[in-house]
Design a protein that fits this description.
Distance between the termini: 105 Å
Number of domains: 3
Number of strands: 8
CATH superfamily of the largest domain: Intergrase catalytic core
CATH architecture of the largest domain: Orthogonal Bundle
Radius of gyration: 29 Å
CATH class of the largest domain: Mainly Alpha
Shape: elongated
Strand content: 5-15%
Strand order of the largest sheet: 1-2-3
Largest sheet: 3 strands, antiparallel
Number of helices: 14
Length: about 325
């Protein structure tokens, strides 16, 4: 039977001339509309076989294939959520109907709903799917040109040592320990909350993040300073698996009411947990640690990510600038002799 119902919705089922089985929802409760789609799909199947036309692929097929091929990605769950949002706008739409204007209209909705920066992440995903559909799967001739939003760079937010001490004094003990450890190591939130004792060697004063736990996918080596060692030593015996716990359970959420209340009491505004990492990098920069060393210690993938902190160390550049002074002075003195 070419047309049949599931509930109140009509479904299509037929075999193409090439032997491929087509079974899909017509997404309509009107039989005439379902019949029209059925005839269209059947005609396309004939054209593919007899005339060599490419089969018409839908966004749904491309999104599903993308998710199946990228299950290994650390951002797989993020892709699932974003594709779920796209479905309200692209469900059932043919890939060659997804033009630059269509994408721009959808992106505008997301930018209003959230922000241009968030919209860019959605745009990056749809661009990647359409490029793969064109260049790898050959489902479309070419992908549409997709423009990203220009996003203003955000000022780096970090604490002074005095502010950091004020915050630590206002936090409950378990959050204060995690905050101090973050300031001492520059680790990302998830790497602190999920840290296990198997990743720590107190005798050698080192810890490590496995590649599958790191944002960049590469292992991270952490040299433990005295502050980090004292924090870790304090946690010994509290849990046999996880380092940081509260009432016998691992700490998962840090952006809690206690965290926000401590910020208010300490007089600190517009500060996120991730800004502890910015604080760590800013302090190192201000103390003369070279940017390439900070990049390695913080496991940033590109130098551009670390150059955000360069303006915090003008003294370093002044020292290098004085090299020219010496050269010019030596030249002038030699000419005067």
């Amino acid at each position: 039977m070419s047309l049949y119902k599931r509930g109140s919705t009509w479904w299509i089922s037929f075999t193409t001339p090439s032997g491929e089985r087509v079974r899909r929802s017509a997404e309509t409760e009107v039989k005439a509309e379902a019949q029209e789609l059925h005839d269209k799909l059947k005609a396309e199947g004939w054209r593919v076989l007899k005339l060599g036309d490419k089969p018409k692929r839908t966004w749904d097929e491309a999104a599903y294939k993308w998710l199946m091929e990228t299950r290994h990605k650390k951002s797989h769950l993020d892709d699932v959520c974003r594709i779920k949002w796209f479905q309200q706008h692209l469900r059932g739409r043919l890939l060659d109907e997804i033009t630059r204007d269509v994408v721009a209209q959808i992106a505008e909705l997301k930018s209003i709903e959230t922000s241009p920066a968030t919209a860019n992440r959605f745009l990056a995903l749809i661009r990647a799917i359409l490029r793969r559909a064109a260049f790898d799967w050959e489902w479309i001739d070419k992908p549409p040109v997709i423009r990203m939003y220009q996003v203003q760079k955000i000022r780096i937010r970090y604490l002074t040592p005095i502010q950091a001490n004020a915050l630590l004094s206002e936090l409950p003990e378990h959050l204060a320990d995690m905050t101090k450890f973050s300031l001492a190591t520059g680790l990302r939130r998830s790497n602190v909350t999920r840290m296990e004792w198997s990743q720590v060697d107190l005798a050698r004063r080192v810890a490590w993040i496995h590649g599958d736990q790191a944002k960049g996918g590469k292992p991270i080596h952490i040299s433990l300073n005295e502050t980090a060692l004292k924090v870790l030593t304090k946690q010994i015996g509290k849990h046999n698996l996880y380092v940081f716990t509260y009432k016998g359970k691992p700490v998962i959420q840090v952006n809690t009411k206690a965290w926000r209340a401590a910020l208010v009491r300490a007089g600190i505004e517009n500060f996120r947990w991730h800004d502890l990492r910015h604080t760590w990098a800013s302090w190192l920069t201000q103390q003369g640690v070279p940017l390439n060393v900070i990049q390695e210690m913080g496991a940033w993938e590109s130098p551009e990510m670390v150059r955000r902190y360069a303006h915090l160390a003008p003294e370093q550049f002044a020292t290098h600038a004085r090299v020219v002074d010496n050269l010019l002075n030596d030249t002038i003195l030699s000419q005067q002799k």
